[in-house]
Amino acid sequence: MEGIIMMVAMLAIFYFILIRPENKRKKQAQEMRDSLKKGDTITTIGGIVGKIVMTTPNTIVIETSDDRVRMEVTRWAVSTVGVQTGEQPENTKKKKEEIAESAEPADETPASENEEK
C-alpha cells in the first residue's frame, strides 16, 4: 500500500515539475506564432531576422534586408518576435568599463613589510 502511495506521489511531482511547465511554454509559443502579423520583426530558430510582409495559415514571408530579399518560412520556425541577440547593449558595456576604471587598486604592500612595522 505504501509503495502505491509513493508511486502516485512521484508521478504528481513529475507532472508539476516537468510536464506542466513544458505544456505552458508550448502554449505560449503557439499563441505567439498565431498572433504574427504583417510588419512584425521576427527571429527564426536558425537566427534569421526579418520583417513579415505576408502571412498564410502555415507559412510567412519575411523580408531580410534592405535589398528586399524575401524568404518563405513555416510558422513553427519562428523563435521570437523582435530581434534576439546575445550581445549586451552599448550603455551597459560603457557603465561596466567606467566602474572598472574608477575602482581604486588595493593596497599593494607585501605582507612581509606590514609585519615588520
How would you sum up this structure, described in words?
The protein is of the alpha+beta class. It has three helices and five strands; from the N terminus they run αβββββαα. It has helices at 2-34, 90-102, 111-116; strands spanning 41-44, 49-55, 59-63, 70-74, 78-81. The chain has a five-stranded antiparallel β-sheet with strand order 4-3-2-1-5. A hairpin with a 3-residue loop joins β2 (49-55) and β3 (59-63). The termini are far apart. The model has no long low-confidence stretch (mean pLDDT 81).
Question: Could you provide a short overview of the structure?
Answer:
Helix content is 44%, strand content 21%. The protein has 117 residues and is an alpha+beta fold.
Give the arrangement of secondary structure elements.
Layout: H1 2-34, E1 41-44, E2 49-55, E3 59-63, E4 70-74, E5 78-81, H2 90-102, H3 111-116
Antiparallel strand pairs: 1-2, 1-5, 2-3, 3-4
